[in-house]
Amino acid sequence: MNELSPVFDVHLHPIRTVISVQSLIDEMDRAGITKGVLLALDLDPDVLTTNLKLRDEIIDDLWAYSYFINPDQLLDSMIRILHTGKTSNQHVAELCNVEPGRFIGFGSVNPSREKEYVTSKLNEILALGLKGIKLIPTLQFFHPQKNKNIKHIFKYATKHNWPILIHTGKDPGPFEIPTLRHVQYSHPRYWKKIVRKANTPVIFAHLGGYGVTDDESWIDSAMEIAKTNSKVFLDTSAVTYALEDPNTVDKLRDLGFDRILFGSDHPVVHGTSMDHSKKIIENSPLLTKSEKRRILYENANKLFFG
Ligand SMILES: [Zn+2]
């Protein structure tokens, strides 16, 4: 493929303590990434000390995984991840202004908070001129079908024609532990009914399931939802390597490559880079030139700019 072909990365984390604006832009330039979606993360690091019911649930889930682990140590590590990952809507909005036209900002709202808080966050996202919402059941500790604010969030997003990007699958560190209920709540199946009623684009991150390649039900569920709803997209972030597997490529081709979006998840996936992720697609013998162009740029450009 032509080196100068434009590339749109729909999944970037401008985490303040991990990457500076300049390093992010430099990395994008090095990898030839033309445009990118910057994601905020509305996380509540105090929730694991203040919400004792949630804390007990997590400790139960950790014991179910192994009697040989120390739940307190893992809880501390979870709190550290929440502190580090927290990325405000304001920060994302400021970055979008650094190189106008290059970035699209997605705000984030924690559905586990009370309704007034959720409404104020949605209004904040609107006032900041952000263009979408990121939701993450693992780190925001919610069940898509049992949460009382999801309907409200979808309604608000639909009104403003904002896509909603939903994390699916595990998360790094202690959030890799499969017996954690909030990892299981990140299965695409819990979004099926919600998405059916939704009238705004939905992007399932990580092709339906980061870190769950041993269980095909995750990607199959995301595909099934996408097949019956043309507003559903899948991004490749953190799992671009899945496109090296002929079976996965066949499955995705069955859906059609018009709704697969390139994402790198930079800088949260260790041992990889934007350039590396991009090259997996660019150099793939399994994809046609037209499929590569659609995944790397055209689909996202159409979604955000019509
Ligand atoms: Zn991510």
Query: What is the number of independent domains?
Result: 1
Bound molecules: zinc ion
Second-tier CATH architecture: Alpha-Beta Barrel
Write down the CATH class. Alpha Beta
State mean pLDDT (0 to 100 scale).
Answer: 94
- Widest sheet: strand ordering: 1-2-3-4-5-6-7-8
Q: How many angstroms does the end-to-end distance come to?
A: 24 Å
The rounded Rg comes to: 18 Å
- Total helical segments: 14
Shape: globular
Q: Which regions have little confidence, pLDDT < 50, spanning 5+ residues?
A: none
Judged by helices, strands and strand pairing, the structural class is alpha/beta
Description:
By secondary structure, this protein is of the alpha/beta class. It contains 14 helices and 8 strands. It has helices at 21-31, 47-50, 52-65, 71-85, 89-98, 115-127, 137-140, 150-159, 181-184, 192-197, 217-227, 246-255, 274-282, 289-305; strands spanning 8-12, 35-39, 103-108, 133-135, 164-166, 202-204, 232-235, 260-261. Helix 1 runs parallel beside helix 13 (274-282). The chain is globular, with a radius of gyration of 18 Å. The chain binds zinc ion. Residues 11, 13, 205, 237, 265, 268 line the site of zinc ion.
List keywords for this structure.
about 300 residues, alpha/beta, TIM Barrel, eight-stranded parallel beta sheet, about 45% helix, globular, binds zinc ion
